[in-house]
Amino acid sequence: MDAGQVTRTEVPEAFDEVAERYDLMVGMSPGYHAQLRASADALLSAIPDAAPVPAGGESTRPAGPLHLLDLGCGSGASTRALVEAVRRHATPGGRTAARPAAVLAVDGSPGMLDAARSKAWPSWVGFAQGRAEALAHQPELAAAREAGGLDGVLAAYLVRNVPDRDAVIAAIRDELRPGGVLAVHDYSVRGQPAASALWTAMCWSIVIPLGWMTSRTTRLYRYLWRSVIDMDSTAELEARLRRAGFVDVTTHHAGGWQRGIVHTVVGRRPADA
Q: Does residue 9 contact residue 231 with C-beta atoms inside 8 Å?
């Protein structure tokens, strides 16, 4: 049955319906994985303590691993992008010393987590079920909290889907260490008529029919179209981060055919907060 509309509170359950075929869907989206890699690189680049140490140089960075959170990890595409970014930033050219990392990937959909866990991962990557709205109660963050907080959070295709965006952004801020960085990767077309028209045409002519072909359901993909139309503009999303106390807020825009549609907003928790 493929009736009814998905609400923001029902998003994890809607992803369960398509989890087995979701990788097939995103694999048919040109640029999807490259855009996630670019956002993960933007996150790592904004964390000073993630920078590699030249051979023979002295490091003043904290001891222990870099604590990173992939919030809303889905089937693991964003987690893979984060792992690859850690490796690139740790050893460019193989001439630098790496700070070890610990990546926790969290999602509210059991089906998507099963798909993510089924893949091969380094020993320093872990997965846990949880909703962004309840981040403060996520027990798997205990090690990061004991170390002073998370160094970085990648939230890909998450903020658009939560019931209370301001509350989730504030909850992420509270889990970051002073100076920690948040990267919000998402679709946004508000205030851009050409991008809105392209998004609508793409969804109804390609994405929604492909959703039916791969999963025999279109509920999630109809919700995807509607949620992007309703999403904050990048200026509004930047303002949300600033209201939550983030500083150095900047936006990176995807190129190619999704220019004006996919963006990454990066902000930092103040070092003295």
A: no
No. of H helices and E strands in the chain? 11, 9
d(CA 269, CA 200): 35
Strand partners, 268: 181, 247
| CATH of region 30-189+233-268 | 3.40.50.150
Encoded tokens for 159: 């903020």
User: Where in the chain are the domains?
Assistant: 30-189+233-268
Q: What is the DSSP secondary-structure string of 11-60?
A: HHHHHHHHGGGHHHHHHTSTTHHHHHHHHHHHHHHH-GGGSPEETT----
pLDDT of residue 55: 54
Say yes or no to pLDDT of 5 above 90.
no
pTM of the model: 0.91
- 10 CB-near residues (< 8 Å, 6+ apart): none
What stretch of H or E contains 165? Answer: helix 165-175
CB 132 within 8 A of CB 162: yes
Instruction: Report the largest interatomic distance among the alpha carbons of the chain, rounded to a whole angstrom.
Output: 63
